[in-house]
Amino acid sequence: MAEHHFQLVPVDPRFYPAPDAIDTAQAVVRALIPSAEEVHASCRPGIHFFDAGEGFEEPKCPFCDADTAPWWSDAMSDAWDGTHFNELRITTPCCGASTSLDQLRYPNGDRFGSFIIEAALADPAENPSSEQISQLQSILGCQLVAYWITR
Ligand SMILES: [Zn+2]
Question: Which of 105, 125, 142 is the last residue of a domain?
């Protein structure tokens, strides 16, 4: 059976919410998604890659639509400093655009971030409304991306 997880990640991959705000947001997510087996928040130094679950595909270049498969994993290795990602800025080999790894188009919705809230093993029918996401944005003090993944 497919397992669904709800994830909430700041748009800015370097953003850390305040500890009190994290506790409050976690409680709100728990109330919005009561089916979740577990709601946890993770806040770690440095930037991490949150894969969107099964069926990974390399991203596309947002400027010229090229497939990044020939260079993406090397660019990821260059940006990895052993425990986290440091510098996401890249120049795309396909079209020479100045951008960053988190700005590429990930077809499955993979994300970069320092902070994530996940409601694990939850029912996707309990999808928070855009008003509820706005409420979470004001609690955490940042713009958020909310999505479901399957693992
Ligand atoms: Zn390109």
Answer: 105
For residue 75, how far is its CA from the centre of ligand 1 (angstroms)? 14
Ligand 1 centroid to residue 114 C-alpha, Å: 26
Give the distance (Å) from ligand 1 centre to CA of residue 71: 11
3-class SS letters over the chain: CCCEEEEEEECCCCCCCCHHHHHHHHHHHHHHCCCCCEEEEEEEEEEEEECCECCCCCCECCCCCCECCCCHHHHHHHHECCCCECCCEEECCCCCCEEEHHHCECCCCCEEEEEEEEEECCCHHHCCCHHHHHHHHHHHCCCEEEEEEEC
> In angstroms, what is the span from residue 78 Cα to ligand 1's centroid?
18
Q: What is the pLDDT along the chain (151 residues), one digit of tens a residue?
A: 689 999 999 999 999 999 999 999 999 999 999 999 999 999 988 999 998 887 889 999 999 999 999 999 999 999 999 999 988 999 999 999 999 999 999 998 899 999 999 999 999 999 999 999 999 999 999 999 999 998 8
Query: Where a domain ends, among 70, 86, 105?
Result: 105
The answer on 114 and 49 residing in a single domain is: yes
pTM of the model: 0.88
Same domain, 118 and 93: no
**Number of compact structural domains in the chain:** 2
